[in-house]
Amino acid sequence: MTYENLDGLEVKKLENAKAQMRKGLLELCVLSIIDPEEMYPSDIIEKLKEAELIVVEGTLYPLLTRLKNAGLLEYTWRESTSGPPRKYYTTTEQGKVFCRELKESWDELVTKINNITTINSNHE
Amino acid sequence: MTYENLDGLEVKKLENAKAQMRKGLLELCVLSIIDPEEMYPSDIIEKLKEAELIVVEGTLYPLLTRLKNAGLLEYTWRESTSGPPRKYYTTTEQGKVFCRELKESWDELVTKINNITTINSNHE
DNA sequence: AAAGGTACTTTGCAATACATAGAACTAACT
DNA sequence: AGTTAGTTCTATGTATTGCAAAGTACCTTT
Fold first, then answer.
1. Nucleotide nearest to B13 (CA to C1')
2. For the stretch B91-122, what's the b/e string if a residue is b when 16 or more beta carbons lie within 10 angstroms of its beta carbon?
3. What is the ipTM of this complex?
4. Which CATH number goes with the domain that contains A77?
5. CA at B64, C1' at C11: how many angstroms apart?
6. For residue A84, is it within any domain?
């Protein structure tokens, strides 16, 4: 990824476009990360960061709450040795099913987008 | 894609999740579709439909306007033999560069998401 | 002239990111 | 005991971009 062909304004636009691309994908990411085990929010943020998908608290907490309210996640409080208690989230059975469906939808979407963008690459 | 594991409310949630996934991806799609040639909006909608990415006027027209205002697209009016005149859009040089950068960003994003969701699939 | 079809514009709403401020809890320090 | 620092979680305003729907404008046909 190099920005040498873009001026300052374009860079900002590209950054924004990248941010918009991420919208709507976090549910899948978060459910996938949590699924095999239990996790508390800062760990989730850390895991996302390792995957180079940076997410901030203001995004994650409301998302976790939404998923909990939708019955896809549940949580238990756990005392921590290094500060206040933590909410450990796990995926409900419902959430596992939903996550699998979501993954399928994602795969289909990727295929569709690639069909569009790859076909046109061949013309260049 | 089967919904047999989901009840009515879940289906609605999944549909919504799919809609959210699409957000942010249309710029890339539209630029990719237009790039090799010139196109007017109904044709773009048709092409997207063929690719099973259904987009409505209320979405596309403002998007085209945004891209035009950003200098990535330009248009000329053309008379039509079957109705009112049409706006034919073409990609500017700037738009071609932007589209390539966007494609790279997309590819990176796909890789990152797949890293997250695939790793966890292996645990099931 | 009116009707029908096509093309484009506008607007309100919903959803989900981000930035930021703040509250609450615990451990360590003074 | 009180204060400070670090950690965890909550809430809110803002920005962006889809969708639904209504409406305007233009051309052809009736």
1. C15
2. beebbbbbbbbbbebbeebbebbebbbeebee
3. 0.87
4. 1.10.10.10
5. 17
6. yes
